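SAMPLE LOG
Freezer: B-3
Tube label: C17
Construct: single chain, 453 aa
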Amino acid sequence: MTAKAAKAATPTGAIPATPARSAETRRRRLVAAAFLLPALVLLGALVVHPIGYSLYRSFFDRSGDTFVGGANYGEILHDDTIRTALRNTALWVVLAPTTATALGLIFAVLTERVRWGTAFKLLVFMPMAISMLAAGIIFRLVYDHDPHRGIANAVWVGVHDTFAESSAFPKARPGRDSPLVPASGADAGGFTTRDPVRAGVPVLLPLVGVAPEDLPGGTRTARPAAAEPGKVTGTVWQDFTRGGGGRTNAVDPTESGLAGIRVEAVKDGRVVDSASARPDGTFTLSAKADGAVLRLPAANFREAYAGVEWLGPTLVTPAVIGAYVWMWAGFAMVLIGAGLAAVPRELLEAARVDGANEWQVFRRVTVPLLAPLLAVVLVTLVINVMKIFDLVFVIAPGSVQDDANVLALQLYRTSFGTDADPGLGSAIAVLLLVLVLPVMLYNIRRLRKEGAR
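STRUCTURE (predicted):
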């Protein structure tokens, strides 16, 4: 072949391959492989081998000696506890990432318009510096059912009692041989006198069951009511003498009145008069009460509102999701805020000049421009949520862990619990991998598309 023919056979601008160049290429590949080898060994030891062994182990029984085929996977479909974990995991995937991403978007947009936005972002992002274990302990206390310990119920009870104050006598009840009997029908929970009362004849309404320290402020020593012509008078008091002694159904010198308790006079099922007991327990009703039955309505004995059972079977999963959102909304806010800073301001101003209000600018301009970033944040949180374990394990009490169960927690309980079954646990691990894999592949594909632009 002539030199001209060789030149024509070589692509324009290409450098002909030579033995020296081929050796250099091989050397560079060997150097790259040498640098990659430790990472590949670690990847194989910490990722590939556990995945392969889990897949292998999922086809064997509890002991690992007997091949059971797909029996462990069939057990996943028939075990009620695992199905609850699947259902709760689906609830997590739907609620937690969308809520955290939505709050992150709202925070990122709003903090752009305030001077103290940086401080607010710092406060919102601070939970990311807390471990899941620490956050779980914090929210276990936040959701405590006792309003004196759990801040969630303290706030809830405070708001409730602002509009519906609880009674000071929730455990009060008539004592032995009392003239009071339990009311029935619509008045259930209250007490009524056995017989109608008469004007000018004082009435005694003794109750027991109220601890001295629980008596309302301003309570005084009880005294018998004086008779008043044409009026019904009486005394409602704590018929209990501290240290023992005293007379039953009689006002003793050291016994306390039940201040503020409501007394109603009822005739033919209708309240004709009412009064509240004074600090010494005495009360006075008008002549309308003559011949009526006195009633202590159930409102006097209503139990104090104890708040919401946040960690009960019904609300435990939403409560734990709330703790997760508290942690990860800051993560979403920071990423979305970075994307928002790159949005061309002229587009927003052009929309405003065209007459769009702020909501329209946000919905039709800002959100579409941030859509790729929102998708990345959402998918990242979905992957994170599908592996959630420690928050559920720490926050949910043992009595409701079956109700709050998720796949990662069920994997731990099945593989390492008191009745451990490594075969079934490996099957759950493979199922979790299969569920996470499509989301990961979608995220990688999206990132590659973004990088190619």
